[in-house]
């Protein structure tokens, strides 16, 4: 039994005058503790798929099961990390990271202590009483990750969480997020435009075709890359040829040949 099972997903957006099929016949599985990425041309429905998996959108057709139960029943089991950190500017860092626990009525002294401890593990000591505007973009994204992990979700949805950061910060954060998810044994799905990021962070990469989005190809990452940190996997000899292979496939899709 797979941890996450996406079965025959189809999704169509209707307006008064038109219908647009965003996704067609998508089926995939993710095992517990795996990190998978979804790549594809712009407008291929990557974020729509993420929204369906997290039950923010009900698909036109198909089912999503988390631990063999409909994902719509998964209360607090799914955490989201987005391109924007969405920290409340008038709340302190401590108030921001405890917000999810408060809203889900899970705020106890033990959970509060664990969240503050995680903040320290992320290299963010002595920032609890500061406001978000006092932190850099990379620091705010680390705070957003702590807030997401504080509620102990079983599945993490990462929607281009590093794309607004400068390259050096992005590389450091990829390593930190990867290491943290490994330590906590978390399962994650990343939507990204960045082929290198997908290769460096993932166990498996799903490449979607142009609209309607279908699974065009699945790439299993070699074991020698899976065992390395994202930064080190970018420097491995297996990385360039894999990058070129996925690049060519993506390019053919964007030119309408896929």
TrEMBL record:
Keywords: ATP-binding, Nucleotide-binding, Transport
Domain ABC transporter: 4-235
Key word Transport present: yes
Pfam families linked to this entry: ABC_tran (PF00005)
Recorded GO MF terms: ATP binding; ATP hydrolysis activity
Protein name: ABC transporter ATP-binding protein
Organism listed in the record: Neobacillus rhizophilus
